């Protein structure tokens, strides 16, 4: 009998780290049924000769919790080979939620993750109270790729304590209730629990979100409850000299006390490039703790364009102009000169310009410039003020000039050392969040194009293993992350010579005419989710084959 699908003659990189080999992959329904030489025919075949066949990529840090309501293809992730996305990071989720608290959770997500509040409230059905009911609701939306979610600390705290949960720590009885809800959420399908210790994640009134300053006894109680349900615990630590060592010790305490997997956002900053605090993680891992970090495999940070608001701080006049009218505005000599004068008179302009790196004038963005190759240096070479250079380049490109302003993982040697640790998984692209400011969601394409193809720093087998099998292990998804008989058919067929990101762009495709940054990918001959082709030659096919992957099940 013919198979449903055969992917023929590709270089198979199976996700285990084993040496690539030429062969076929046969699929029946949503399951891989043969890998190697496959005889016979199929209802559908993909010619993979000259291409690389891999498991689908897993992104461990997204905020697609809201976007799934109006963008079922979950872009940009699905343009870059991601077949499973982890939502609910950083403690901010939409469940559990009492009906009266919906506005609070939406506003919190807006200020923390730059997702418009009105889009959140109108773009989701809000027909749930518990986290399990939230998963039931989004499952009805037929996502294009697989999603799995964590229940957020801030949401649970507010659910149990109300407004007291913002500034006060819970009583022992409230801790027990918070932990109970966290554990029950995992039993109801959440893959885990997320918390946040970064004070910069704030509510509209400027206060840190609930749970930011939680004491260790609360976190250990939650870890015990989540661990008993075989869940994951995710943390955003505070990378400051005063806090980071304590926060990393807390990770070890949680892993030990809860006997559970722990995931955290791991970055290199100026403060910690040489004074590395991650020996604390190594210490606990040597004791048997299962602690993982995820990081962007390149500099991460803001995108500066004419159509978003990441430009010179003094340019309030330009921020007031509709993004579609800004090019015409800066073509006006008087208006443009006023912007230049404002920038010249603002001491912050020099700092801003020194942090901007031009992404280049090609289809592929340049993320590899050293810090000194910045807008300041470009302006000096041209004999201009940096504001003049920025504006001139916008005029010369009809408003398409794009700059990057990294604020973490800024040095490639440090990023390379960080990624080389066996507990680090590439990711942290924040897909679905910071929609008008940051666009790091194309990280899989950069990981393959830069680290594998262009520099040869990583063999393809190692790179794919990190994005697939290792990531699946973090989520305890035993049926994904490898090309093997019996595994779910999440598959990428890649033209490795062509894989890369495209320049970020601002588009208006959010509810209520809101705009966001997107980033297309290139080199993806096909992406399959649960056996169905959702992407062909970098374009969506219309198939929506994703599932909500719940804890303690193979789905």
List the helices and strands and how they pair.
Blueprint: E1 3-12, E2 21-28, E3 31-36, E4 42-47, E5 52-55, E6 57-59, E7 82-87, H1 102-113, H2 117-123, H3 131-139, E8 146-152, H4 153-161, H5 164-167, H6 172-187, E9 192-196, H7 216-228, E10 232-236, H8 244-258, E11 261-265, H9 279-286, E12 291-295, E13 300-304, H10 316-319, H11 326-330, H12 333-344, H13 348-354, E14 357-358, H14 375-382, H15 386-396, E15 403-408, H16 412-419, E16 424-426, H17 443-454, H18 460-467, H19 469-475, E17 491-494, E18 500-501, E19 505-510, E20 514-518, E21 521-522, E22 524-529, E23 532-536, E24 539-540
Parallel strand pairs: 1-4, 1-5, 6-7, 7-8, 8-9, 9-10, 10-11, 11-12, 12-16
Antiparallel strand pairs: 1-2, 2-3, 5-17, 13-15, 14-15, 17-22, 18-21, 19-20, 22-23, 23-24
Would you kindly provide a brief summary of this structure?
The protein is α/β, with parallel strands linked by helices and 555 residues long.
Tell me what you see in this structure.
The protein is 32% helix and 21% strand. The strands form five sheets. Strands 1, 2, 3, 4, 5, 17, 22, 23 and 24 form a nine-stranded mixed beta sheet that branches. Among the domains are: 57-301 and 408-435 and 469-475, Alpha-Beta Barrel (TIM Barrel); 305-407, no CATH class. It is built from 19 helices and 24 strands. The relative contact order is 0.17. It is of the alpha/beta class and 555 residues long. The two termini are 26 Å apart.
Number of helices, where a helix is a run of at least 4 consecutive DSSP H or I residues: 19
Radius of gyration: 23 Å
Unreliable runs, pLDDT <50, ≥5 residues? none
Q: What structural category arises from helix and sheet content?
A: alpha/beta
What integer is the average pLDDT?
96
* Strand content range: 15-25%
How would a crystallographer describe the biggest sheet?
9 strands, mixed
Count of DSSP strands: 24
Helical content stands at 25-40%
Mind telling me the CATH class of the domain at 57-301 and 408-435 and 469-475?
Answer: Alpha Beta
Supply the CATH architecture of the domain at 57-301 and 408-435 and 469-475.
Answer: Alpha-Beta Barrel
- Enter the CATH topology name of the domain at 57-301 and 408-435 and 469-475: TIM Barrel
How far from one another are the termini?
Answer: 26 Å
Identify the CATH homologous superfamily of the domain at 57-301 and 408-435 and 469-475.
Answer: Metal-dependent hydrolases
């Amino acid at each position: 009998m013919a198979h449903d699908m055969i992917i023929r003659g590709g270089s198979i990189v199976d996700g285990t780290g084993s040496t690539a080999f030429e062969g076929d992959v046969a699929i029946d329904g949503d399951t891989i049924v043969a890998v190697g030489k496959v005889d016979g025919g199929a209802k559908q075949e993909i010619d993979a000769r000259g291409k690389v066949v891999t498991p689908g990529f897993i992104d461990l840090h997204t905020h697609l919790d809201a976007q799934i309501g109006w963008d079922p293809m979950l872009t940009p992730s699905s343009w870059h080979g991601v077949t499973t996305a982890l939502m609910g990071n950083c403690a901010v989720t939409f469940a559990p939620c009492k009906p009266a608290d919906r506005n609070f959770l939406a506003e919190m997500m807006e200020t923390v993750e730059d997702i418009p509040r009105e889009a959140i409230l109108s773009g989701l059905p809000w027909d749930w109270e518990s986290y399990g009911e939230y998963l039931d609701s989004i499952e009805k939306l037929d996502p294009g790729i697989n999603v799995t979610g964590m229940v957020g600390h801030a949401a649970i705290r507010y659910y149990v304590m109300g407004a007291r949960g913002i500034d006060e720590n819970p009583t022992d009885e409230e801790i027990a209730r918070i932990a109970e809800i966290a554990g029950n959420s995992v039993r109801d399908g959440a893959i885990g629990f997320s918390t946040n210790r970064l004070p910069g994640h704030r509510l509209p009134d400027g206060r840190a979100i609930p749970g930011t300053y939680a004491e260790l006894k609360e976190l250990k109680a939650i870890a015990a409850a989540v661990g008993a349900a075989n869940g994951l615990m995710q943390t955003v630590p505070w990378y400051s000299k005063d806090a980071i060592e304590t926060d990393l010790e807390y990770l070890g305490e949680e892993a030990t006390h809860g006997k559970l997997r722990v995931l955290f956002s791991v970055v290199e900053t100026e403060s910690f490039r040489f004074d590395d605090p991650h020996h604390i993680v190594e210490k606990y891992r040597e004791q048997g703790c299962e602690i993982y970090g995820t990081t962007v495999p390149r500099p991460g940070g803001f995108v500066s364009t004419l159509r978003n608001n990441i430009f010179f701080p003094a340019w309030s006049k330009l921020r007031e102009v509709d993004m579609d009218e800004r090019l015409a505005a800066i073509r006006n000599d008087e208006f443009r000169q006023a912007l230049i004068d404002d920038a010249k008179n603002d001491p912050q302009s020099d700092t801003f310009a020194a942090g901007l790196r031009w992404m280049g004038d090609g289809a592929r963005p340049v993320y590899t410039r050293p810090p000194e190759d910045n807008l300041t240096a470009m302006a000096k070479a041209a004999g201009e003020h940096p504001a003049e250079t920025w504006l001139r380049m916008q005029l010369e490109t009809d408003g398409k000039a794009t700059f990057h302003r990294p604020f973490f993982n800024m040095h490639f040697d440090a990023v390379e050392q960080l990624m080389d640790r066996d507990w680090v998984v590439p990711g942290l692209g924040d897909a679905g969040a910071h929609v008008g400011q940051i666009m790091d969601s194309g990280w899989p394409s950069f990981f393959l194009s830069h680290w594998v193809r262009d520099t040869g720093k990583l063999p393809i087998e190692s790179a794919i293993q990190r994005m697939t099998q290792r990531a699946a292990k973090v989520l305890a998804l035993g049926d994904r992350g490898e090309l093997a008989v019996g595994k779910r058919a999440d598959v990428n067929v890649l033209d490795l010579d062509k894989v890369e990101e495209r320049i970020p762009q601002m588009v208006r495709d959010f509810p209520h005419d809101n705009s966001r940054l997107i980033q297309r990918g290139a080199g993806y001959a096909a992406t399959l989710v649960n056996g169905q082709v959702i992407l062909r030659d970098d374009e969506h096919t219309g198939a929506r084959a994703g599932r909500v992957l719940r804890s303690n099940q193979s789905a």
